[in-house]
Amino acid sequence: RAKEDGRNAVCLFSKDMHQKIEDNLRLQMLLPGAMEDEQFMLYFQPQFDQHRNLIGAEVLLRWEEPQQGFVSPDLFIRAAEESGQIVPLGDWVLRKACAQLSKWRQQGLPTSFERLAINISARQFSLDDFPFRVKAFVEEAGLQPADIELEITESMLLNKRDQVIEKMHLLHDMGFHIALDDFGTGYSSLSYLHTLPLDKLKIDQAFIRDVGEDKADRAIVETIITMANLMELDVIAEGVEEEYQLKYLISKGCIKYQGYYFAKPMPADVFASSYIYDAAESRSAK
Ligand code: C2E
Ligand code: MG
Ligand code: MG
Ligand code: MG
Fold first, then answer.
1. pTM
2. Which residue, 94, 124, 184, 283, is the most exposed by fewest CB within 10 angstroms?
3. How far is the CA of 90 from the centre of ligand 2 (A)?
4. Pocket of ligand 1 from Cβ distances under 6 Å
5. For the chain, what percent of residues have pLDDT higher than 70?
6. pLDDT for residue 281
7. Nearest to 33 by CA among 94, 76, 78
8. Closest ligand 1 atom, residue 153 Cα
9. What are the tens digits of pLDDT across the range 79-114?
């Protein structure tokens, strides 16, 4: 943008910045009321293996603001992080997601279903009592920690790394699975990756998007898959939209996928009618 706009670049740039800051502050102000008004809901995006078995789902938060409609999670999660609202909001997500999984388990999830993946923000994770909080939510719902996969990002390892790693160990010892989200986009050095108590790498969708044309992206994807295999970690590809991407991933030995090619994130009732035995039966009986 700066290049194209020539001498107006500085001016346009600062206007953009100004707008973004204003939008962010407005979202920050709306968040507490939105929680009280119950404007948030959980969506679920299914995950599959190479035989099209349902192996899990990622919980994705949605906010339908009465005036603006759906607000992008990238924007409101950032606003919630900055205002601190992510803590009560994140607790709400955890509690609600655990209750939902518990209900689905009772109704009959396919046996291939391993666990529910929940995104955890840096600020949430940094709370001293985070491991005990999440354990409490899991127990409250009658679940086991192994029913839940916590998705964290490499950026969390930039600050207070020792404390973060200690907490990862604690959670892992409790039985939670830990996935590194958006893998490949961060700054983490590969040399200490094998020392982390990780279960899974999620290949960022940016690399999957261009595996058709971009040699460098293919190299990255293949390196991540090889590395995961050597380190005995699970690996899942995010953002699989096209059949050729799936075929490519299968040929490289990646056997877990998430993306629009299979299904978009969906509300709980839609998920249930597609994947839960009882719900599907009662719907077709109607
Ligand atoms: P993420 O955790 O990397 O989630 C994957 C994002 O990719 C989701 O965007 C999902 O809708 C989108 N996606 C899935 N398949 C495809 C595909 O095939 N093509 C494309 N183009 N996109 C696909 P979404 O729902 O907008 O969420 C954006 C980000 O917001 C998430 O990225 C996550 O970082 C954050 N987020 C969402 N829900 C929560 C939450 O409950 N807590 C926290 N802390 N963060 C959340
Ligand atoms: Mg995620
Ligand atoms: Mg991701
Ligand atoms: Mg993301």
1. 0.93
2. 283
3. 13
4. 45, 59-61, 73-74, 77, 90, 93, 119-121, 151, 181-182, 205, 238-241, 258-260, 265
5. 92
6. 62
7. 76
8. 34
9. 999 999 999 999 999 999 999 999 999 999 999 999
Neighbours of 49 (CB within 10 A): 15
Express each pLDDT in 151-178 by its tens digit. Answer: 999 888 888 889 999 999 999 999 999 9
What is the predicted pLDDT for the residue at 17? Answer: 86
Low-confidence ranges of the chain (pLDDT < 70): 1-13, 188, 279-286
Please spell the DSSP secondary structure of 231-263, one letter per residue. TT-EEEE----SHHHHHHHHHTT--EE-STTT-
Ligand 2: distance of its center to the CA of 276 in Å? 22
Among 44, 93, 119, residue to substitute to test ligand 1 (most atoms within 8 Å of Cβ): 119
Ligand 1 atom 25: residue of nearest CA: 60
Q: Quick one: how far is CA 81 from the chain centroid?
A: 15
Ligand nearest to the CA of 184: 3
Cβ neighbours of residue 157 closer than 8 Å, sequence gap 6 or more: 164, 165, 186, 188
Interface ipTM: 0.98
Q: How far apart are the first and last CA of the chain?
A: 55
Ligand closest to 202 (CA) is 3
CA of 151 from ligand 3 middle (Å) equals 8
